[in-house]
Amino acid sequence: MSEIKKNLLGVKQRIEKAAQRAGRDPHEIKLVAVSKTVEVARINEAIQAGVSILGENYIQEAQKKIDEIGKRVSWHFIGHLQSNKAKYAVRLFDMVHSLDSLPLAEELNRRAEQANQVIQVMIEVNLSQETTKFGIDEERVLNLAKGIQNLSHLSLEGLMTMPPYFDSPELSRPYYIALRELKEKMIKEGVLMKELSMGMSNDFEIAIEEGATFVRVGTAIFGPRK
Ligand SMILES: *Cc1c(COP(=O)(O)O)cnc(C)c1O
Q1: How does residue 15 score in pLDDT terms, banded at 50, 70 and 90?
Q2: Is the CB of 74 under 6 A from ligand 1?
Q3: Which of 34, 50, 73, 131 has the fewest CB atoms within 10 Å of its CB?
Q4: What pTM did the predictor assign?
Q5: For residue 204, what are the domain limits?
Q6: CATH number, domain containing residue 152
């Protein structure tokens, strides 16, 4: 069995166990295999092993891979998106996890309308007030969500966050609790959404315990990045 397949099976098993611990149906949790810096041959190996959603961070890098591999899998954009790349994001991706401003939402919507497409989006929330991280502040999320709801070619699916890196995954938990509570608050305010994109290689089990519906896992599947 290939290393990637072995890793993938291990990750899937851990997802299932974490879901069971939390009393959740493991099928609610979708695995995004994060393939930034990973070459096409190894991505194909992952697809062969059963990966069906791939996550990429950079438009140019993704474009080459998607042209080669095609859309037999679903491609999700998880990196920081600049407005001038919105056109490519619409063409290449089914979902953008990292929407963090209204101008960007409006540009994506304009491009999606031109392409006669609806693009699924999540709002990236910055819960750690770190200046180095992307995402919108918690207080401004409701406003952005309401703005997105007025855009005909965007479908708001949920919230995404990325906590600071901790050696101990347990330290991510407060951020994942906060994102879940924010989603619940938004629903009370009339913004319907069902997804929570949270959890990476080092802490996805914690994220699942706190309600993640998408986990974004790179190194635990593909090994360390160069
Ligand atoms: C790289 C990346 C991941 C995956 O990180 P790993 O630690 O390799 O699992 C997840 N989400 C985002 C936004 C990333 O940039």
Answers
A1: very high
A2: no
A3: 131
A4: 0.97
A5: 3-222
A6: 3.20.20.10
